[in-house]
Specification:
globular, alpha/beta, three-stranded antiparallel beta sheet, eight-stranded parallel beta sheet, 470 residues, 17 strands
Length: 470
């Protein structure tokens, strides 16, 4: 199979979680000007493309993955002028920019949802998935993907009309069965591509199609609920939606597209990647979730071995190579730090383990995705109470573990191992206050341990450091 003609196969992509990269105005939150100030660092590292986690307007219930306005910049990160400056200055250094595209759901503060609440006759009620309750309860027994109880919540102002949310109640799912809604999304996507974006990483895209019977499923927990993904992840009929999305947007701009496509079996890869695929590439979670039985239930830990991980990784590589191109990753904004996750022996949870993982990772076939701080060998944070966590799924998983009968100590242990906050701690630039993230204002999230050891200032001139290896 000839795959040498695609421009994006030569890229090295670096994911930035903007709130945690560099705080330029000392308010405790990273921002676009902070990223601009560090473009030379990224250029020297050798990356050729930046993937920005969401910077859209958002009430930040889920770290900007709950979007209230797709075409405005969240003021905590800066302005549209700042974004345009980032785009231009990155381009001058030969660095392309892609953004996160979150189109399975919006924030409950989005104008569409607010209009749906305010007017029972509004067309926007059909932009979301609304169903009447059943016997005084939710329409069915689907559990949300964050483990936070039912995947349904009462629509404000209603007594028996519920809206569906695969994730948190503040993230109502969009109704992709509505062609008017789809066209509105396509216009927004093309608006961003016309600004000069190279493409998108596409969030939770395999959840856009729901089984339209909305039937109950066999419970799989003590709460009497069943995982929503059994009825709302990569379901029959999604093919037509993903094809329409591609031809109405990405194809027009030769854009790079990277799908967060959980639930895709290897026998379906030809539909998702390759010459006729919906996306340039997709992330494969079969090997990344080796440590847990379910991506949404952190208390279901596995006792994985290195041999098992090797088999999963090899299977992934061989399956993808048959049809298309891989999107290789060790870390991202949703994953624990790889040194803490994959290196079991504490004495190697340092530059030895980090460089061993990097050697493995960079010799895989596919486009490498580096997550900020991975190149320094950053490690997980260890927090003493659940109150120290920001991540909504961490709080929900803690409560779920308690409900399943685990002790507070055990529940906190699960969250410390798997929390998305592990990846979202401030970047460790040096040994000054707050590891150089800012000039001293309390960061929005507490720093990880060992920031005095694993930081750029320490590693930049050390020939044996993780940074120099990268």
């Amino acid at each position: 199979m000839d795959t040498t003609k695609k421009w994006w196969q030569k890229e090295v992509i670096y994911q930035i979680h903007p709130a945690s990269f560099k705080d330029s105005n000392n308010d405790g939150v990273g921002d676009l000007q902070g990223i601009i100030s560090k473009l030379s660092y990224l250029h020297d590292l050798g990356i050729t493309m930046i993937w920005l986690s969401p910077i859209y307007c958002s009430p930040m219930v889920d770290n900007d993955y709950d979007i209230s306005d797709y075409q405005q910049i969240n003021p905590r990160f800066g302005t549209m002028a700042d974004f345009d400056a980032l785009l231009a200055q990155a381009k001058a250094l030969g660095i392309k920019v892609i953004m996160d595209l979150v189109i399975n759901h919006t924030s409950d503060q989005h104008k569409w949802f607010q209009k749906a609440i305010q007017d029972p006759n509004s067309k926007y009620r059909d932009y979301y998935i609304l169903r009447p309750g059943k016997d005084g309860h939710a329409p069915n027994n689907w559990r949300s993907n964050f483990g936070s109880g039912s995947a349904w919540s009462l629509l404000p102002g209603e007594k028996n009309l519920y809206y569906h949310h695969v994730f948190s109640p503040q993230q109502p799912d969009l109704n992709w069965e509505n062609p008017e809604l789809r066209q509105a999304l396509y216009r927004m996507i093309n608006w961003w591509l016309a600004k000069g974006l190279a493409g998108f990483r596409i969030d939770a895209i395999t959840f856009i199609k729901k089984d339209q019977d909305f039937a109950d499923i066999t419970p799989d927990g003590k709460d009497g609920l069943g995982k929503v993904k059994r009825k709302a992840e990569n379901r029959p009929g999604i093919a037509a939606l993903l094809h329409e999305l591609r031809v109405n947007t990405f194809d027009k701009y030769d854009a790079i597209t990277v799908g967060e496509a959980s639930g895709v079996p290897y026998e379906q890869l030809t539909q998702f990647i390759g010459p006729q695929g919906y996306f340039s590439m997709i992330f494969d979670f079969h090997y990344a979730d080796v440590d847990i039985e379910s991506g949404s239930e952190w208390f279901k830990r596995t006792h994985w071995t290195v041999s098992e991980f090797k088999q999963l990784l090899f299977r992934s590589q061989l399956a993808i190579q048959k049809v298309g191109w891989g999107a290789n990753f060790l870390e991202n904004h949703d994953q624990p730090r790889s040194v803490s996750k994959y290196i079991k022996d504490p004495k190697y949870q340092n530059q030895i383990g980090a460089t061993a993982l990097a050697l493995l990772y960079f010799l895989l076939r596919g486009t490498p995705f580096i997550y900020q701080g991975q190149e320094l060998g950053m490690v997980n944070a260890k927090r003493q109470t659940i109150a120290e966590f920001d991540d909504v799924s961490s709080h929900n998983n803690y409560a779920r573990a308690l409900a399943e009968g685990y002790s507070k100590t055990a529940a906190l242990g699960f969250v410390n191992q798997r929390s998305r906050d592990n990846a979202r701690t401030p970047f460790q630039w040096d040994n000054t206050v707050n590891a150089g993230f800012n000039e001293g204002h309390q960061p929005w999230l507490g720093l990880a341990q060992h920031c005095d050891q694993f930081n750029y200032a320490n590693e930049k001139d050390d020939p044996y450091s993780t940074y120099q290896f990268y």
